[in-house]
């Protein structure tokens, strides 16, 4: 039941700190040793993996895009991400050293299911990341990592997404452990950072009023853009998808670096644009994103900037500033997504839409 909430989606957003903690629970020791009980692939089989292909649909595919950055960085195994509905119709090259990772909250999405059946026929090994115990996709996989987020009722995924991202990190770190691309103490320190994330999510939920007020102010907008770089790019895609799904307005996510290759033509006076700014430090991602903000603002965009605590460089260019708790770059999607979920929910609510059951959508799509 809704437990006093107006929408399941609000309840499920509030459950995110617990969902993330539960996905981590019992899976690692203080020293960083990972233990994944449902990992039915042996360490020897995993050491043979020379390529990872992630397949999923919708929000789950954005969890996969986030995972790609972490998997390649921590394991040095090449990783690609593909929509399940495209994957099997292009005659993909697969063999037994390919690990296909299927991500699905429901475990019943037909496109994803057909893709893993195809992958297994081609002798690839299939690992699924799934929230629903005993559902079809994990039953037909060689191994499974359950997300333990608890039942998700609202059609648009929230805690499902965050727990999928966490499960992907666990997989990446497990592969790093088995392959020896990261030492135990490095893995332990990354896990310690992930352990601190639920508190950061809680803070953003507690500060939700600021975002709700912004959503009310902008609820007359017919188009909103989202920009991000690196792992902020899939966050931008997810922010836009949430708004399409719930508010039925035009919303698009772009890679900030692509701006000048097309999307900047869309910018006009007063257009709201969310920008996810990466933490300072790595490859000048933060500086480059700030110059994107300057470019769109010079053309009249109303900028809504998500930046970590203490990043003062963004202040002059932000019409609205949403502060994020400090986390390492690769973990930023776990916090940056939360205000975007709050925004889309409130925006849809302001328009009088059914937040839990958006028109034309279903929670699990069991047709191709
Ligand atoms: C869509 C839902 O139809 O399926 C999305 O509307 C969801 O919210 C997508 O992300 C994938 O679902 P699942 O269960 O495979 O993660």
From TrEMBL:
It comes from Aeromicrobium endophyticum. The keyword Transferase applies. Catalyzes the first step in hexosamine metabolism, converting fructose-6P into glucosamine-6P using glutamine as a nitrogen source. Its EC number is 2.6.1.16. Keywords: Aminotransferase, Cytoplasm, Glutamine amidotransferase, Repeat, Transferase. Homodimer. GO terms for cellular component: cytosol. GO terms for molecular function: carbohydrate derivative binding; glutamine-fructose-6-phosphate transaminase (isomerizing) activity. It comes from the Bacteria. Residues 42-181, 214-358 form the SIS domain. The chain holds residues 247 to 614 of 614 of the full protein. It is found in: Cytoplasm. One of its GO terms (biological process) is protein N-linked glycosylation. This is Glutamine--fructose-6-phosphate aminotransferase [isomerizing]. It catalyses: D-fructose 6-phosphate + L-glutamine = D-glucosamine 6-phosphate + L-glutamate. The active site is at 363 (for fru-6p isomerization activity).
